[in-house]
Amino acid sequence: MNAPEMLDTKTQTQAHAQATGYIGKRMARTEDARLLTGRGVYVDDVGLPGALQVAFHRSPIARGRIKSIDLSAARQLPGVYAVLTADDLARFKVDMLSFFLAAPVVPVPVLATDCVRHVGDPVAMVVAQDRYIAEDAAGLIVVDYDEEDPVVTLADAKTGPLVHPDADSNVAAATGNEDPDEDLEAQLANAPHLVTVEFEHQRISQSPMETRGVVSAPQGSGELTIYLSCQGPQLNARWFAQAFGMPQTAIRVISKDVGGSFGLKGQPWREEVAVVLASMLLKRPLKWIEDRLENLTSANQAREQEIKLRVAFDADGKLVASHADYGLNNGAYPQGADSNIAVMMFLWGAHKLPVFDFHARGWFTNTVGLAAYRGPWALESLAREVLLDRAARQIGLDPIEIRRRNLIRREDQPCTTPMGLELTDISPAECLDVLLEKIDVAAFRAEQAEARKQGRYLGLGFATYIEPTAGSTGIGVLMSESAHIRIEPTGKVSAVVSTHSQGHGTQTTMGQVIAERLGVRFEDVAVYEDDSSRGGYGSGAYGSRQAVAGGGACIRAADLLVDKIKRMAAYLLKVEPDAIVLGDSMIRALGDKEQVVSFRDLADIAYGEPERLPEGMDAGLEIQYRYRPPPITMTSAAHACIVEVDADTGFVKIKRWVTSEDCGNMINPAVVEGQIAGGLAQAIGEVLMEEVSFDARGNPTAVTYKDYMLPTIFDVPEFEYHHEASRPSIAEGGFRGVGEGGCIIGPPTLVNAIADALAPFGELKLEFPLTPSRLLAHIEGRREIAERAAPAESAPLPVPESARAASESASTVENLPAPSAPQEPVAASTAVQVDGEWKFVLSTPMGPQAFTGRMSTDGDQLTGVFIMNMDEAHFTGTVSGNQLKWDLKVTKPMKITLKYEAQIDGDKLTGKCKMGIFGSAKLVGERVST
Amino acid sequence: MKPAPFDYYAPATIEEACQLLSDAGGGATLVAGGQTLMPLLALRMSQPFVLVDLNGIKALKGISRQAGRTRIGPITRQNEAIADATLNAAQPLIVTAVKHVGHHQTRNRGTIGGSIALGEPAAELPATAVALGASVEVRSTRGTRQIKADELYFGPYATALEPDEMITAIDVPEWPSGTVSVFREIAQRPGDFALVGLTGAVTIDNGRITRAGIAWFGMGPTPIKARQAESALIGQEIAALDAKAIAELAIADTAPFDDLHATAEYRRTVGRRVFTRALSEALDLRAAA
Fold first, then answer.
1. % of chain A with per-residue pLDDT over 70
2. Inter-chain touch A771–B43, beta carbons under 8 Å
3. Per the database record, which ranges form the FAD-binding PCMH-type domain (chain B) (predicted)?
4. Is 3.30.43.10 the CATH number for B7-53?
5. A66 has which bridge partners?
6. Contact B127, B134 (CB under 8 A)
7. What is the three-class DSSP state of A714?
8. What is the pLDDT of residue A807?
9. N or C: more exposed end of chain A, with fewer CB within 10 A?
10. Class assignment of domain A378-470+631-809?
């Protein structure tokens, strides 16, 4: 099953210790016994003496001013300890932060202050002896609002009132080029084939089985212990410390078992922060467990997007040029305002595309805020793969062939994409090769043709993708992971790792890596990742990083420990270190007479008789190592899916789903396959049934799992997994991440299968989710057209592709905004003061960046320096009146020239920074001194 | 999601339960299996002052046959009904319908009477009771009365039961030999309420239909009896039956609506098709559509 390359790491492993074969082994998970028998420890299982319970009173309207709040009845209810509003929490200075630990672009209140901005906006909190009373009291709070018309949809955001009155517009974040590139437009207009897809993607709730939850216990010493349902205790402890301006040593975050997160719990948000603050205020342990109604209406959500993707192909179906226009609903308070640059980075990250440009915007609305969701940029794969199939039908190519003509193969690398992505080892084409060995496409097409004659509609869909995993570039919170491995005096192994499982099974996989590299039995290794006070900083579960970054840390730490053990054992047993072999939790000295000692024997001496150690060797047997993986480790895959659509009812039956991926060396194939399956289950839900919906007043309309439909076990087929395309990565251990892939490649695979099945009814209308009702409306609509065209004739006929294609491509270059008039420079005679010390804020795709700088002028020459993070960046430019221009070359996160244009008005500076392919960012400045 | 405060009573007899309902003056709610009520309480969509737990009343349980009728105790669990030999012999359509109610796990708690009393318009059992011509025996301190199932439902969750009344039995006529079941449910996921549902019985004697009872669920604000289709079927010779035409008549009685999951148009289109197919299959028509 594994590629020959897989054996190479095995051999490497043997060089360190006698291979125990744990890496690559399909092992049962350590976690499962406790999780499956109800003995896991989730936040709600934490009971602290004297703990009180919290319930929130939330806004019933999407937008309005708070005129008054009457708390009197709630406060009088017996069993109520406190009822708090924003005023009560105002004594604490809290800087809400994005996941990147950047300040938000608009102020994010912990509890609503003067106005509410979405249904579910927390307005007050009740602290009571139990949750029942807390909810009773929350129901007694009376808030009087001046209701205003809300901004709900992306369309509303573009034309409606400002969601945040102090902001310039409802644009939360923007990247790319607002003005169309005329050359690109000409290429699109003149290409032999122009193919367009344009659709909206519905909003998704992350729907973790365990909702959000927190228990906050202030200690008398000014410390806080916070039990938190989260994606990583270390990063969350750091978040609280930075947001509260407290030393991180005073904050301990504990997160033992977590029942799923999928991006939702990457960071604390308003409710968790409110509970922690209230516990500090009241000096009592407080518990809040989000209920399902709150989770579906007030927890942040994801994925509400729109895209128009235009692609020009040459006569052979090869890519010529492409443009994407993209919008993302950020809600009122996003966890980091976002225009989702990753969509643009990976849209054509694996394809031979000469020219690409885009315009992407995130929009504020009066809906609950944007958070991450597994594969936050996944829309790139959906839009691209659906478009490629459409192009294949339009051009008259096979969908496999159009991919083969355009995908970058192993032999084409290294190469750099138009977006600056440096590729060395992606393999979607090779994954597709393996996939096609598993499916008899010709036999399927024959079966499909036969079935259509009987009025049965079978479809086969393909997709390929690449996924950046374990990134360690550009995002400061995601650079390295730590492993601290200790041979205890008992001879057993404790490892504290900065990974974290919300179902990932990292206790098992990190244990496998450590056991193999140390040469100990798997059951002798205990892995801890539950407590920020136990070990070093790390981000936990983010961006499919744990196998690569955490696994690499475990390998490096274990190898260093093996080295020490060998030197120590060799000295004690009077052999050369090379003669020492570790395995099966024993230490053997090879030689004329084999000597065997246990880890316990060695640990007794290392801890208890350090005088017996070699000269200069430290006592004890422990190592901590921090591993930074390569900047990006790429994972690739190709999937295929076969469906049958019942044309009488619009129901989709998934008959087969075949996966082929390159995830490098696998630590545990069962865990890899579990990750793929979980992502695909989410993909099936996303395509067929899940939708967070709102009415025109911004009221959520799917507020329980009766209406927010998740796939059940009946809706998810058995998947077939093929790992033959895997090649080791250059990361330590050769691993690649596999956490998000299913959720990225799943949607286009399924949509393409449905579109293929329904091809006789014309191009599928992309209205997500593709419910039976919508699919049947599409089928019936097309039937009517066909019947009108050919009355009283035989079965419904396909709509001619060429006719449809023509109608679609007709609408290509419309609605382009007129280029804005150039700004008139102020006459040079108006003396403009440029020189001085400045404070700047640049709105980057990663959130606002604040820095200081100095600028001085000599005639029309400008010189200056930006000072940020103990780093100076010098630049020179020009001055004309109040207009400044300068270029700044940077190397992080990639080599790029930043082109600044700004104008000065008194002590204020406004302008923009063109960041090459990343588009423009807004710059504002304020003079501090002259 | 915690219920608002309520007083809890667990009476041992029907008389005690009726007294509690009477005393509460309309502020009491009955609980049996709790598969719908408990979430409604937790969501505070239902906030009764008094909760009367029927689970301890033995007289409300069990299934028996007498004089051509089947009597079902309302707190009989759905899974008990599925396993009950008497019900399987006497009322195969009810067994089929119960198998479509929720999931195996919820059927361990959910009761026959609970589903019938709730009056969810997209549920299987109210429509099946309507189709078969069942009636419910209803008690209060004021006395006992029978309500015909097709007079029980006024709108979504709205029934003819007075606030002080409780169902003490479901009384179903046994259909003669030669009766076939017609049942079809279209739901987005197994166990969901129906997008389109159809339930009924047709009696055939010597190639001719002598009796028909058919009702829709998920096709309007209540279970809907397909009266025009029933009339057209009775007296029909099977050999000459036009299932599509009957389906048109059946659809004419429905009043479906748009909701999050499907449009009214979807329900009508699919309803027409599943009616045609289900009837054709049940009657073993050669010209099955």
1. 92
2. no
3. 1-177
4. yes
5. A145
6. no
7. helix
8. 43
9. C
10. alpha beta
Q: Which CATH number fits domain A473-480+487-518+546-627: 3.30.365.10, 3.10.50.40, 3.30.420.40, 3.90.930.12?
A: 3.30.365.10
Q: What gap in Å lies between CA A761 and CA A751, rounded to an integer?
A: 15
Please say if the pLDDT value at position A285 is more than 70.
Answer: yes
Rounded to whole angstroms, the Cα distance separating A496 from A525 reads: 11
* Least-confidence region, from A391-400, A514-523, A531-540, B26-35: A531-540
Q: Is the pLDDT of residue B286 over 90?
A: no
**Which among A471, A506, A552, A468 is positioned nearest to A233, based on CA atoms?**
A506
Q: Do the first three CATH levels of A378-470+631-809 and A473-480+487-518+546-627 match, i.e. the same topology?
A: yes
In sequence order, the β-bridge partners of residue A289 are A213
Contact B248, B210 (CB under 8 A): no
The ranges assigned to domains in chain B are 7-53, 62-173, 179-283
CATH topology for B179-283? Enolase-like; domain 1 (3.30.390)
The reply to whether residue A291 touches residue B1, judged by beta carbons under 8 angstroms, is yes
CA distance A104 to A333: 9
Identify the architecture of domain B62-173 in CATH: 2-Layer Sandwich (3.30)
CA distance A365 to A161: 10
Q: What is the pTM of this model?
A: 0.91
Cβ–Cβ under 8 Å, residues A825 and A881: yes
Residue A769: asked if its preceding bond is cis (omega within 30°), the reply is yes
From residue A767, alpha-carbon distances to A771, A773, A858 in Å are 9, 11, 59
Least-confidence region, from A743-757, A778-792, B162-176: A778-792
CB–CB contact B2 A711 (8 Å) = no
pLDDT value, residue A888: 87
The answer to whether residues A421 and A786 touch, using CB atoms and an 8 Å cutoff, is: no
Between CA B198 and CA B131 the distance in angstroms is 9
Compute the distance between CA of residue A13 and CA of residue B224 in angstroms, rounded to an integer.
71
Q: Which of residues 173-202 of B touch A (CB under 8 A)?
A: 186, 188-193, 195
Q: What is the pLDDT of residues A666-722, one digit of tens each?
A: 999 999 999 999 999 999 999 999 999 999 999 999 999 999 999 999 999 999 999
Angstrom CA distances, B35 to A79, A204, A280, A286, B40, stand at: 30, 27, 40, 31, 9
End-to-end Cα separation, chain B, in angstroms: 48
DSSP A723-767: -TT----SSGGGB---SSHHHHHHHHHHHHHHHHHTGGG-SPP-B
pLDDT digits (tens, 9 = 90+) for A421-466: 999 999 999 999 999 999 999 999 999 999 999 999 999 999 999 9
Is 50 exceeded by the pLDDT of residue A829?
Answer: no
Residue A808 has pLDDT above 60, yes or no: no
Question: Which residues in A have their CB inside 8 Å of a CB on B?
Answer: 131-132, 135-136, 139, 291-293, 648-651, 689, 691, 693, 701-702, 704, 706-707, 709, 711-712, 714-715, 771-773, 776-777, 780
Q: Which helix (H) or strand (E) holds A781?
A: helix A772-789
The complex's ipTM? 0.95
The residues that bridge with A910 in the sheet, in sequence order, are A903, A924
In terms of Cα–Cα distance, which of A19, A178, A858 is closest to A515?
A19
Set of chain A residues whose Cβ sits within 8 Å of the Cβ of B3: 132
User: In A, which residues are within 8 Å of B266 by CB distance?
Assistant: 650, 772-773, 776-777
- For β-strands A720-722 and A652-662, DSSP reports them as parallel
Q: What is the CATH number of domain A836-929?
A: 2.40.128.120
Tokens of A607: 């801890």
Q: Structural domain boundaries of chain A?
A: 378-470+631-809, 473-480+487-518+546-627, 836-929
User: What is chain A's mean pLDDT, rounded?
Assistant: 91
